[in-house]
Design brief:
The complex is a heterodimer of chains A (112) and B (186). Chain A has helices at residues 3-17, 23-35, 37-58, 65-102. With 112 residues, chain A is an all-alpha fold. Chain A is elongated, with a radius of gyration of 34 Å. Chain B has helices spanning 3-13, 17-39, 41-58, 68-86, 112-117, 119-129, 134-145, 150-157, 161-185. In chain B, helix 1 crosses helix 2 (17-39), helix 2 runs antiparallel to helix 3 (41-58) and helix 2 packs across helix 4. The longest helix of chain B has 25 residues, at 161-185. Chain B is elongated. At the A-B interface, helix 1, helix 3 and helix 4 of A face helix 2, helix 3, helix 5, helix 6 and helix 7 of B.
């Protein structure tokens, strides 16, 4: 058996253990497993590994409070800066409009 | 998608920090859990914080075409993968086409459910997982730990279904080989 064949078989047995094969492919792998005890042990190893992955997946880690606080604090700071920027831009624009009006370069838009 | 998530995301997009805070509280476990599994315990906190910064910055781009959790998974996985790419020190487990041997069977004699709670087995698996190539590991985690369908895995990783399936398959095989190596070195 050459190297790339081994990967192919390894992946196929993995797919079998994860119940992801078609009926025909299933029969092929089952035949392989019946003929070769090494393949049977591989399939069993896969089953244990997949069960272990699932069991770890069911665990719920406790999220450090710092993560939540940091995210919310950053959002508040960002929102404040965004509002401050809008405010200053607004004030600046108003002053500019007033100045332009003062110089008599343009009439304010809200005056008919 | 829950109506609440969609509604909160819409409000957050208008700058409502309280709505964003509620999303953070409800989904922080998902983000931290996935970050911990892709990057390991040490980097999970920084990565999670980075994810939430990106979510706040890009929340206007969430249009509600998919579930909020799918969008969040996507940002989390992308953040973790880009963090991972920056790391030069750790050596990823690259699969070659050549495999000179088949992995030795794992000697877990006990019930797999019991094995899950046995710290040693758990640590071995998490250590072995770190040796699997990052993209394959992410696909494997989404499929076998998060229990997502291949369509969801493909959507999150932004690859075709067949690629997602191939990455999970490669990741599974690489993890078994890495576990077998761990077992041999014991």
């Amino acid at each position: 058996m050459i190297g790339s064949d081994r990967w192919e078989i390894l992946e196929k047995i993995g797919a079998y253990a994860a119940s992801e094969l078609s009926a025909e492919e299933n029969r092929e792998v089952e035949q392989l497993i019946l003929e070769d005890p090494e393949m049977l042990r591989l399939a069993e190893s896969y089953l244990r590994m997949i069960a272990l992955l699932g069991a770890i997946g069911d665990e719920s880690p406790e999220v450090p409070e710092a993560v939540i606080n940091h995210a919310i604090r950053r959002a508040y700071v960002s929102a404040f800066l965004r509002q401050a920027e809008e405010l200053f831009v607004g004030i600046g624009r108003t002053y500019l409009d007033a100045f332009v009006y003062y110089l008599g370069l343009r009439r304010p838009e809200n005056i008919g | 998608m829950t109506f609440t998530d969609h509604n909160l995301a819409q409000r957050a997009a208008t700058g409502d920090v309280e709505a964003f805070a509620q999303l953070v509280r409800e989904h922080s476990e998902l983000v931290y859990r996935v970050a911990m599994r892709i990057l390991g315990y040490n980097d999970a906190q920084d990565a999670s914080q980075e994810v939430w910064i990106r979510v706040w910055r890009n929340i206007k781009q969430f249009r509600g075409d998919s579930a909020f959790s799918t969008w969040l998974y996507k940002i989390t996985v992308n953040t973790c993968l880009s963090t991972r790419r920056k790391e030069q020190a750790r050596e990823a487990w690259e699969l070659n086409n050549e495999l000179s041997y088949l992995p030795v069977p794992l000697s877990y004699e006990d019930d797999p459910e019991d094995a899950a709670v046995a710290g040693e087995r758990r640590e071995e698996l998490l250590r072995a997982l770190e040796r699997v190539r990052a993209e394959h590991r992410a696909a494997l985690i989404l499929r076998h730990m998060e229990g997502l369908s291949y369509a969801e895995v493909a959507q999150i990783l932004d690859v075709p279904n067949g690629t997602a399936k191939g990455w999970v398959s490669r990741g599974r095989a690489a993890l078994l080989v890495a576990l077998s190596e761990e077992e041999k070195s014991r």
